[in-house]
Every structure is written in structure tokens, then in C-alpha cells.
């Protein structure tokens, strides 16, 4: 093995504790992990991410991986899970292969990409389903895992197994991903930045849960904030470029080598690494790059500038969810009350609070994307306001890094792009695609793109998540440069280092109506009857409900297929009109909200209108005559009848229930069904991603709207904006699908040739009615055709 000799010492020193834990644990047997001479070169890269790496981790050992961003920690975790795909890179050497589904559970760094279920409970059940557990065992595992990961229980009484995963906060999603890993009861738990999006108390609570769950298991954790992990670890491995092992031993041995104590890994906020100590020079360079002039003298400490943003007694409601009417949303109890905030030039203000406390919701109000329920707000808008989202990719507009910096029309011509790139350490990547950068590089690019606009107010959502010491220092230097230029900086963050540097802190826990969340994490809720009932798996319950919600998914598919069959009976426009009247009569059965139903039917109407027009032009009858118009009308009514019933019925289609029906009742092959269900769940996020991307483009000055005063110019701009938004959403979907596939394999999908389904797919009396509706839709056009001759 090519690791340093300290590795042997680490294994020896840890053996006694490892054996003791394994002997006393009730968890599945711990799994040993071995990599031999492994080299991995991702597609499109010339240098290996893993370079001839050999590593042995004994069963039950607890290992902490430390290293700067890009050192290969995430790739090493994938290799230990046996999930490096030779179709996406060049692989040589050997890596461990799982002996059973879920034997090695990998928790990815981006929890949103790991979501595969339409509810919290069904997402957690995905792994046990792959492991072919029985339904009672799946229920037990899901309940236990959700409680161990603190997804449900004391932190947020509103979060339960019925909650929708993508409506959770980033921290809640991270706990959900952890629950999905714990539900597999793995022999090895491989965690990539498991606490990066959690506030301090919650992080401590979840860390305790991880360590408790790791009893008798092998545990490998990659993290940048290591001090709280060290007392619980048997071994620390420090990685350099290409995953070259720089140090390997017990925490005491590695600290004795000068690799931990007082180092960047221990506290990136204090460390001086890779030029981070030159923060003053970086700030000065950034000021000159933004303004085009040398940095001005500091303002007098005695002056008291007027606030750039002033908020008084704001009341904030939760974000409006799909299917909730405006009246029902206004009736919701407030999320936050009594918010007072003043942001002065040059200040740094931190918004803090437990995961899910409403930080992002408050930012949306301050940015002008949502309106407060009450109170007054005065804030900069337009070019004076810049925003960096939690997912920096959603703000990207250009094809290269250089073009991205000046993509906003609000960037002054005097901006020195090269100086900004140097300040962010991106000068060598000026011609690269923004999407190919590392996580830290993407965040720095998003920040300098915002700074290039020279805003008076800079707002950032979790700007330091997952950054190593060097990236953290570079990011902080950029924020300091914005402050030195007179901008007010507002951050929503869990990062204690960033909070410590803030001039003011707004703690949302003091403004929550729900005090149960404001108190932060409580003790493990255990398995009380109340909690067990809350985590019980059951079909998704939508609000508001439609009558078609009571139908089995197979009945919904039958209704759609029946309408297709019936459409071939439409031979005249009269038959089509009478048949569509039947659809109009049945439509209220599936309507949740009038607005949502009309939006779903708009594409049907556009398709029908297009078919009417093309038929009128292409038919053998003279164009624009009564005969050709009626022929086109018949075809338009046929296509509307063909599609509309399915569109209406599918508003009640739950992807996971569809999987239960196809895989559990019809016994179709489990892997294709499960993959299709995961894809449908992911497709449900498309509208949300589209909305976020459009909002960020509007905040960057690219809000294209049609203008009757300038119809041609505004139309061209509108097409460009919609095209670039479509491309951004498509790229996001491709990246998300790749990560989701990896997350599915990490939860046992790769080995699941056969699988079980967490819930049965039952038929009820309502399905008999649904069958009657289907028969009517299939027969009505033919009956009407026969009666009318």
C-alpha cells in the first residue's frame, strides 16, 4: 500500500476501540474498505483526481478526511462507495464493490440532488425498498431514520413524513439526505460535508446522531470544520492535490506533524493560507477594479451615514405553495413578526436562525421578490441591488467566466474585469465555462459578478457553505472589498466565523411565531406514540383536494388512455364539440384551483389552435373558406379531446404512488419503474427552478417584458431571455440528473435487481367510478357519431 507508515499506526491504535464498538453494537456488521493503486481521470480532464491511491480502512474505524477544495475528498468517498463510473472517466486499479444494496451509504454534498421521493417519508424509504425490506420493516426504518437525523420531532413540529422535500430549507434537506442514508442500516457510512448547511446547535445535534448511528459501523467523514469531529475519530487523513496523502494517523499524530493545530483546516477564519493573509491587498485591488480609481480614504468614524435599507415592524408569511389560493395564503399565520433592520454603507449584517427559520423567505421580501404581510420597507432596487443565491449556478448568464463578470447591463464600462478575476483567483479560468468550476470558484465568480455592478446593497444567501480555508479567506476578502467601497452587505448564514465578523446580527429565532423552532434542537424525540404516528408512511395528501385524488394511479392512466381511444371516433366538428362538452362536465372532478387548471390547459389550447391553422392551410379545400375552417376545427377538437382528459386527470397523479401501482401491483421490472418515478419527481422541480432563474435574471437587470411602445426590440429581448433561461434550466436538469443517479446508486439502486414497494397499491369504490368515467370517455364520441350519422 502506498500510504505513509502512519496509517499502520492509526489502524493499530484504533483496533481496540473499534473491536469494542463492533462487539457491543446491534447495527449490521461493519464493512472494511480497501482501495489499491486507484487512478481516476474524469472525462474532459488531463490530470487525475485520484492518482495511484492505495488505502485501507479497517471495519468499524472512524476516519476524518481533511484537505482543500479540489483535493479529491468527494471523489475518494465515491470510490470507497464503489460508485466511480467508467463511462464518465478513465479508471484503473481496484475499488471496493458493495456486497448488498446499501452496504456502503454515501451522503452527497448537495442534498437537493439526492431527492428521489415526492414526500419526506417516501424519499427515506427509497433505500430500504432497494434492499427488499418488508413493508413493516420499511415503516420502522423510516421512522427511526427520520428521528435519528432530526428531520421530524422537536426542531420543527410542521415537518413530518408527509412534508414535500423541495419545500424544506437547505438544512432540513441535508438532514433528510442523512436519514436516507441511515435507513439503509449500512456497514459503512460515507459522509461528504454532512453539516455544512446546518446552524451550530442543529449541527451539534446531527453530529451526535451520526456518531450514535455509526456505532459498530465504519465511518468516513469529509469536512472542512474539523475540531468538533477530532475527539470522536480514530484516524485523520490529510489529502493534497490528486488525493495524495500528506498525513495519516491518529488525531494526535497528525496534529504533532503540524497539520491540524492552528491550521487552516482547524479554523479557516484565522488561517493564513495561499495568500489569504494578503486580504488588505485583495480588498484594495478589488476596489480599484470595481471603481476604476484608486481606493479612497476611509470615511470618518464620527459620521453616521443614512441607512441604505430600512425595515420597520415587518411581518412575513410563509411562501405561497402550489395549489394554495391567495385568500388561503393571506389567512396563514405569520412566519416572522416584528422585524426591524437598518443597513448602513460599509456594514456587514448577518441574518441567523435555525434551519427552516425563514432566512431565505425574509431575503425574498428584502429583495422585492415577495411582499411583506405588514410593516414598512425602504430598500435599493435596480442597479443598486445585487444578489448572490445559495446555488450560484442559478445566477450564471454567460458561456465563459470573463463574459459572466460583465453579463449584467448594469456593469459600468470602466470595470476592470482582469483585476476582478485576479482578486477572485480566477484569472487562469477566464475562458472556462462557469459551470465547470469547483464549488468555491463558482461562489467567488457569482460574488465578483455582483461586485462588478457596483451595488449599494449586496445580499448573499449562505455564501461560505462548503468552502475550504483558502476559498473562505478569498470570499471574505471580496465581501470586505464591497464594504470598503461603501456597499452594505447582508448575509443569511450559519457560519460562526462570518457571524463573528458582522457589525450586526438579526436572530430570527426571536421573531418566530412558532417558538418550538425558535428554541433550536431538542433531545432525540425517541419513539413515542405521537412521534411514531407523525412518521408513519402514507399516501401523499394534497391541499386543496380534488375528487380524482381518491383514484388509483392505474385508474388515472385508464382515463387518459380511454380519451385517446375515444378521440378516433370524432369525425365531424359537431361530434367533437359534443364530446368536449362531456369533458367540461367531468373537469370539476379534478380541479384544485381554477388558475392552476387553466395554466395546464393553455398548452392544449395552443396545440389545438396550431393544428386548426395548419389544417386549414394544408387541406385539399381552399384555404380560409368555411369548409377548410370547419375541417380544421374538427381536428382541433379531436386533439383537445385526445389530450385534455389526461392533463386534467394527471393533476392527481403522485409519482411514488404510480411506482407502487406499476411495480407493486402490475409487477413491472422494479429498476425502470423506480428510475421513472425519480425522473417524474425531479421534473416536478422544473417550474421552481425556472421561477428562481427568472427572478435572479430580473435582479441582474435582464427582466425582459413585452412593450407596445417598442414591440420589435422588446420581443427580441424577451426571446433572448427566455432562450437563455431555458438553457440554464436544461443545464441544471442535466447536472441534477447526473447527481440524482449517483444518489440513487449510493442508496442501493445499483445492486437492486429486484425491489419492494413501501406502500400497497389499493383499489377502492372510487376506482369503479373512475372506470365508468373511462368507459364513457372511450364510448361517447362513437355513440354520438352513430346517433348523428
UniProtKB/TrEMBL annotation:
Main location: membrane
Topology with respect to the bilayer: Multi-pass membrane protein
Region Disordered, annotated ranges: 1-25, 261-280, 287-315
SMART domains in UniProt: AAA
Record keyword Membrane present: yes
Any one GO MF annotation of this record: ATP binding
Subcellular location: Membrane
Superkingdom per UniProt: Bacteria
Keywords for the protein's UniProt record, in alphabetical order: ATP-binding, Membrane, Nucleotide-binding, Transmembrane, Transmembrane helix, Transport
ABC transporter domain boundaries: 33-266, 309-536
Family recorded in the similarity comment: Belongs to the ABC transporter superfamily.
Protein name in UniProt: ATP-binding cassette domain-containing protein
Organism: Brachybacterium equifaecis
Amino acid at each position: 500500500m502506498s500510504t505513509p507508515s502512519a496509517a499502520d499506526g492509526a489502524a493499530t491504535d484504533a483496533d481496540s476501540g473499534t473491536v469494542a464498538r463492533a462487539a457491543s453494537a446491534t447495527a449490521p456488521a461493519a464493512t472494511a474498505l480497501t482501495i489499491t493503486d486507484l487512478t481516476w481521470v474524469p472525462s474532459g480532464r488531463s490530470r487525475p483526481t485520484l492518482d495511484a491511491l492505495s488505502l485501507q480502512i479497517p471495519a468499524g474505524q472512524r476516519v476524518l478526511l481533511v484537505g482543500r477544495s479540489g483535493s479529491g475528498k468527494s471523489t475518494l468517498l465515491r470510490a470507497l462507495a464503489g460508485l466511480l463510473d467508467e463511462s464518465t472517466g478513465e479508471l484503473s486499479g481496484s475499488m471496493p464493490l458493495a456486497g448488498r444494496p446499501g452496504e456502503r451509504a454515501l451522503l452527497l454534498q448537495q442534498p437537493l440532488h439526492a431527492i428521489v421521493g415526492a414526500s419526506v417519508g417516501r424519499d427515506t424509504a427509497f433505500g430500504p425498498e432497494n434492499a427488499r425490506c418488508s413493508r413493516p420493516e420499511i415503516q420502522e426504518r423510516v421512522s427511526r431514520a427520520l428521528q435519528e437525523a432530526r428531520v421530524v420531532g422537536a426542531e420543527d413540529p410542521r415537518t413530518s413524513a408527509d412534508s414535500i422535500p423541495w419545500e424544506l430549507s437547505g438544512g432540513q434537506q441535508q438532514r433528510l439526505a442523512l436519514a436516507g442514508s441511515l435507513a439503509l442500516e449500512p456497514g459503512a457510512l460515507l459522509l461528504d460535508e454532512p453539516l455544512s448547511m446546518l446552524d451550530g446547535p442543529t449541527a451539534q445535534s446531527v453530529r451526535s446522531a451520526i456518531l450514535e448511528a455509526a456505532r459498530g459501523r465504519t465511518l468516513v467523514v469529509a469536512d472542512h470544520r474539523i475540531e468538533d469531529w477530532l475527539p470522536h475519530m480514530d484516524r485523520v487523513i490529510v489529502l493534497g492535490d490528486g488525493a495524495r496523502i500528506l498525513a495519516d494517523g491518529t488525531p494526535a499524530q497528525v496534529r504533532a506533524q503540524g497539520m491540524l493545530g492552528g491550521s487552516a483546516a482547524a479554523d479557516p477564519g484565522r488561517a493564513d493560507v495561499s495568500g489569504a493573509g494578503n486580504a488588505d491587498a485583495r480588498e484594495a485591488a478589488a476596489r480599484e477594479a470595481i471603481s476604476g480609481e484608486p481606493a479612497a480614504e476611509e470615511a470618518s468614524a464620527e459620521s453616521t451615514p443614512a441607512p441604505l435599507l430600512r425595515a420597520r415592524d415587518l411581518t412575513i408569511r410563509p411562501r405561497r405553495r402550489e395549489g394554495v389560493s391567495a385568500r388561503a395564503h393571506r389567512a396563514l399565520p405569520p412566519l416572522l413578526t416584528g422585524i426591524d433592520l437598518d443597513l448602513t454603507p460599509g456594514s456587514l449584517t448577518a441574518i441567523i436562525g435555525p434551519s427552516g427559520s425563514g432566512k431565505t423567505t425574509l431575503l425574498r421580501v428584502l429583495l422585492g421578490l415577495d411582499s411583506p404581510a405588514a410593516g414598512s420597507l425602504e430598500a435599493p432596487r435596480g442597479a443598486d441591488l445585487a444578489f448572490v443565491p445559495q446555488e450560484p449556478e442559478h445566477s450564471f448568464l454567460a458561456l465563459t467566466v470573463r463574459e459572466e463578470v460583465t453579463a449584467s447591463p448594469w456593469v459600468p464600462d470602466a470595470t476592470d474585469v482582469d483585476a476582478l478575476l485576479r482578486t477572485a483567483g480566477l484569472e487562469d479560468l477566464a475562458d472556462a465555462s462557469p459551470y465547470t468550476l469547483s464549488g468555491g470558484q463558482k461562489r467567488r465568480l457569482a460574488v465578483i459578478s455582483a461586485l462588478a455592478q457596483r451595488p449599494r446593497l449586496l445580499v448573499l444567501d449562505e455564501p461560505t457553505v462548503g468552502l475550504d480555508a483558502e476559498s473562505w479567506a478569498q470570499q471574505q476578502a471580496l465581501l470586505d472589498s464591497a464594504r470598503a467601497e461603501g456597499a452594505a452587505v447582508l448575509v443569511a448564514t450559519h457560519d460562526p466565523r462570518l457571524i463573528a465578523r458582522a457589525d450586526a446580527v438579526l436572530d430570527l429565532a426571536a421573531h418566530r411565531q412558532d417558538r418550538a423552532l425558535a428554541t433550536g434542537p431538542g433531545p432525540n424525540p425517541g419513539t413515542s406514540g405521537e412521534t411514531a404516528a407523525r412518521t408513519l408512511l402514507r399516501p401523499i395528501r394534497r391541499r386543496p383536494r380534488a375528487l380524482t385524488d381518491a383514484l388509483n394511479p392505474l385508474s388515472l392512466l385508464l382515463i387518459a388512455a380511454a380519451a385517446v381511444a375515444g378521440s378516433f371516433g370524432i369525425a365531424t366538428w359537431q361530434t367533437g364539440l359534443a364530446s368536449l362538452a362531456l369533458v367540461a362536465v367531468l373537469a370539476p372532478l379534478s380541479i384544485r384551483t381554477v388558475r392552476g387548471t387553466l395554466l395546464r390547459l393553455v398548452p392544449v389550447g395552443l396545440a389545438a389552435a396550431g393544428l386548426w391553422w395548419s389544417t386549414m392551410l394544408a387541406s385539399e379545400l381552399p384555404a380560409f373558406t368555411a369548409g377548410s375552417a370547419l375541417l380544421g376545427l374538427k381536428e382541433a377538437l379531436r386533439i383537445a379531446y385526445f389530450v385534455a382528459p389526461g392533463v386534467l386527470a394527471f393533476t392527481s397523479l403522485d409519482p411514488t404512488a404510480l411506482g407502487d401501482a406499476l411495480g407493486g401491483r402490475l409487477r413491472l421490472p422494479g429498476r425502470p419503474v423506480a428510475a421513472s418515478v425519480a425522473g417524474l419527481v425531479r421534473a416536478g422541480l422544473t417550474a421552481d427552478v425556472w421561477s428562481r432563474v427568472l427572478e435572479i435574471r430580473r435582479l441582474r437587470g435582464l427582466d425582459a417584458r413585452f412593450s407596445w411602445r417598442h414591440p420589435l426590440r422588446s420581443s427580441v429581448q424577451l426571446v433572448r431571455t427566455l432562450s437563455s433561461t431555458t438553457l440554464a434550466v436544461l443545464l441544471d436538469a442535466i447536472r441534477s440528473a447526473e447527481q440524482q443517479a449517483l444518489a440513487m446508486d449510493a442508496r442501493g439502486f445499483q445492486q437492486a435487481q429486484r425491489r419492494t414497494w413501501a406502500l400497497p397499491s389499493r383499489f377502492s369504490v372510487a376506482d369503479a367510478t373512475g372506470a365508468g368515467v373511462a368507459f364513457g370517455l372511450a364510448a361517447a364520441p362513437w355513440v354520438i357519431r352513430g346517433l348523428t350519422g
